[in-house]
Amino acid sequence: MDYLYLASIGAVFVAVALLAEALHILWQSKFSPQARRVGRRLRSMLDPSADPQSMATLLKKRMLSDHPAVHELLAGLAPAVRLDRLLEQCGSRLNVARFCLLSFAVAGAVLVALVLVSAPAALAMAAALAAGMLPLACLVRKKKHRFAEIEQQ
């Protein structure tokens, strides 16, 4: 037999073996029990209302405040829990109490500054409210940027 013929047969064998291995790896990455479990956890992270029990097992409990009494107060408020999840998703090290304090401080500073320059009360209140929402807008922007980075990986 010719060496070229034997080399062709060997190359075809290697190609078929590599194709079989690639299909096996693809099958395992999509349908293995581990892949199903990871997919289920990712879906529960994206939509926590579907299975709140699994959400509790995935996320460690973060303190909403440094003070236990304030933590208990905030833990009973659903918006505070959603805000904590947003803070965690955007990678912030702030807790909910400090974030709220920051928002109120920004709003208060703008309100005081506008009152000192004798701005109309309605304008001062509207500007203070808008300024108080700036930290939240920054968090949402940071979350979108972080999720875009994760999707690119």
Describe this structure in words.
Helix content is 80%, strand content 0%. The protein has 153 residues and is an all-alpha fold. The longest helix is centred in the C-terminal third of the chain and has 32 residues, at 121-152. The mean pLDDT is 86.
Which SSEs are present, and which pair or pack?
Blueprint: H1 3-31, H2 33-46, H3 52-58, H4 68-75, H5 78-89, H6 96-116, H7 121-152
Helix pairs in contact: 1-2, 6-7
Tell me the distance between the termini: 49 Å
Rg calculated over all Cα atoms? 27 Å
Outline type: elongated
Number of strands: 0
Question: What pattern of helices and strands is seen along the backbone?
Answer: HHHHHHH
Mean pLDDT: 86
Query: Percent helix among the residues?
Result: over 70%
Oligomeric status: single chain
Unreliable residue runs:
none
Main structural class: mainly alpha
**Beta-strand percentage?**
under 5%
Number of helices: 7
Main pleated sheet: none
